[in-house]
Amino acid sequence: MEDGIMKKYPADVVINILLRLPVKFLLRFESVSKTCYTLVRSSTFINLHLNHTTTSKDDYILLKRSFKEDVERYKAIFSFHSSDGDDYIYSLYPDRDVPYMTIPYSIDNDILIGPIRGLIALMDPITTILFNPSTKNYRLLPPSPFNVPKGFRRSIDSSGFGFDSVVNDFKVFRISEVYTEDRFGYPEKGEKKVEVYELGIDIWRELDHVDQELPALFWLTSSMFYKGAYHWITTHWFRALDDGELVILFLT
Amino acid sequence: MASSTTGEKKILTLKGGDNEEFILEESLVLQSELLKNMVKEERVSSIPLPSIKSKTLVKIIEYLKKHAELTPSNKEEFKNFEKEFVNVVLEELLDITVAVNYLKINGLLEFCCQAVADRIKDKSVEAVRKIFRIESDFTPEEESEFRKETPEAFEGDLDDTTN
Question: For the region Disordered, what residue ranges are annotated (chain B) (predicted)?
């Protein structure tokens, strides 16, 4: 801005206005001039824009429903609803199929996480789909390539999606326990595994040195991404400690 | 320079870009961080604002007066006033926004920036260039590449820059 291409208006005013505009406009603003392109693509501007409070006009309700299509076929649908503040709720866009989530069983265990920096993750124990609500595009992430050895089982404690501001990349992770069963079919104490996927490099890896004393995290208990870290509420019942201890795990 | 007073109220003179003078109560300008500092620290009674057109200054003073009268009971009336306030041609609205930014009147700045954003969100690339007086520095090849990739961004019916 300082190089004089934007002669008429001070840069801080222009930035203040741009922060209030949707990504769709910013993509257009890129084509205005090289300076505009550099500004809109700078990490400083992107961070400001992401942290800018959106107005209530941008709010909508994202609803994911699953319909039984056939005996063993359920179809997942995204609906986008908004309201004027009265009782009347209307549809903003046509419903969208979530093709990768058309599966042979009902999907009670799906979770929606986000939006985190503009992306929403839709996860079931196996599949993760990233969804960009402003462009309505999907991306199916590759499943974790780490399989369990023969005779072992995996129980998934928790999955999640977040943004790591240190490496500037989105991450998906899965915490699970790999265990065997004794001859009566009862599970024996297994090993905790943590797998992390980085979107930018498209690679899954398994973390070394996972704390085996990690308390049990249940798939359906509330978990959230807040201020750069993932948070769970877990009961510590197996150690007979106080209930409701807050666990914070930093993903590295 | 000593401040002139009438009764208890201090009076201040603002001088617009074309040397037109505006006399108003000092308490009104305290809404502007810039003027507040000048009044409190430098104890001036006349402030030249050569970069702000008189037409713009009239609008801003009108806002300061209305805002000073704002009470919980006339909130609706003030909201209507705000709506009317930004209902001017885009170039004038931008002049006001730039002046408000310079004067640091924070609440009004937020309101003006949002009003500009609402007005330009559907404008084409060409219209945005005209509105912000930006000249394209892309090569003709780059320019035609953009037009090929996002033809809708350059569509002519969005080219109205006055509203």
Answer: 139-163
